[in-house]
Design a protein that fits this description.
This protein is of the alpha/beta class. The protein folds into two domains: about 100 residues, no CATH class; about 150 residues, no CATH class. Helices cover about 50% and strands about 10% of the residues. The strands form two sheets. Strands 2-1-3-4 form a four-stranded parallel sheet, with helices on both faces. Strand 5 and strand 6 form a beta hairpin. Helix 1 crosses helix 3, helix 5 packs across helix 13 and helix 7 runs antiparallel to helix 12. The longest helix has 22 residues. About 40% of the residues are buried. This is DUF4435 domain-containing protein.
Length: about 290
């Protein structure tokens, strides 16, 4: 039995309070295991303890509960998940949300993507694709992921269950051409019972606001779409290479300068200044080259 799955926000609060009996530094509460992996090498060793919040609602709930105790030195980081698009404010001043849909989108929007493409893509294939399509790989990736992202956003706003889970990219993105089968995607949404017809689905999608695609696209979808592209159109990646492996490559390719200059790094440094003497990041901002 996986007891982690049954953790509540109260459990996370209690975990932080218990750890504070032996740790006098800061705490960084994050959503899950992948976030722990990302932040482990980036937080100040000995000064900051990482806590797995087991999901965004728990992170937000735990921070709210700790705020009510006037507990100091704890920060939570959560994925935005379209909250910014829907004007949903963070419930605590000790919470930071990503400035894209989620952490994977932050990584894909950064130079980490270029480094992964340089290591695992084919320069000749990428050059041919960009010349033929007239668009850079990053923008092409987003244009494919946005179709799934808008459906996810619509399902959230309209209250119907998104029918594909994490299987959307593999189901609708053609490996040979790296294109989305939009007709099949729309037909399968209608077949799930979400809308009576493709016309109704398109009308609902058309009523969504036009906004930043990096806030709409879901990172797991984008990483999966990237993996499909790297197998043939952009590279020669083995077919069995999974999404988790590609995500780990992106996490490793995101360096200290990327972090310090990005929204998360800037926001964390601002929190540190407002919450002296607590430290979160291991790197001194003065050491980042301008």
């Amino acid at each position: 039995m996986n007891l982690t799955a049954y953790k509540s926000s109260g459990d996370i609060e209690a975990e932080v309070l218990m750890m504070s009996q032996v740790h006098t530094g800061s705490f960084l509460v994050v959503e899950g295991v992948d976030d722990i992996r990302f932040w482990t090498s980036r937080v100040a060793d000995g000064a900051c303890e990482l806590v797995d919040g087991n999901g965004k609602p728990n992170v937000e709930g735990a921070l709210t509960r700790l705020d009510s105790r006037s507990f100091s030195g704890v920060l939570g980081i959560v994925d935005d998940d379209c909250d910014g698009l829907d004007c949903r404010p963070l419930p605590s001043p000790n919470l930071i949300a990503t400035d894209a849909h989620d952490l994977e989108c932050v990584l894909l929007r950064s130079p980490a993507l270029d480094r992964v493409l340089g290591e695992f893509g084919s320069r000749a294939k990428i050059r041919k694709f960009e010349q033929t399509q007239g668009v850079e790989v990053r923008n092409a990736l987003v244009s494919r992921g946005i179709q799934l992202g808008r459906l996810r956003w619509l399902s959230r706003r309209a209250g119907w269950p998104y029918p594909f889970g994490d299987k959307g990219p593999a189901r609708f993105v053609d490996q040979a051409t790296w294109t989305v089968d939009t007709a099949r995607l729309e037909a399968d949404v209608v077949a799930s019972g979400a809308y009576p017809s493709v016309a109704d689905l398109r009308a609902a999608l058309g009523n969504l606001p036009t906004d930043d695609p990096w806030s709409i696209c879901q990172g797991h979808d984008l990483v999966a779409v990237l993996g499909i592209g790297l197998r043939k159109v952009l590279g020669n990646l083995k077919a069995g290479t999974g999404v988790d492996y590609i995500a780990s490559l992106l996490r490793s390719a995101y360096d200290d300068i990327d972090l310090e200059r990005g929204h998360l790094g800037v926001s964390i440094r601002a929190w540190e200044q407002a919450n002296t003497p607590y430290r979160l990041l291991r790197r001194n901002p003065a050491s980042v080259e301008s």
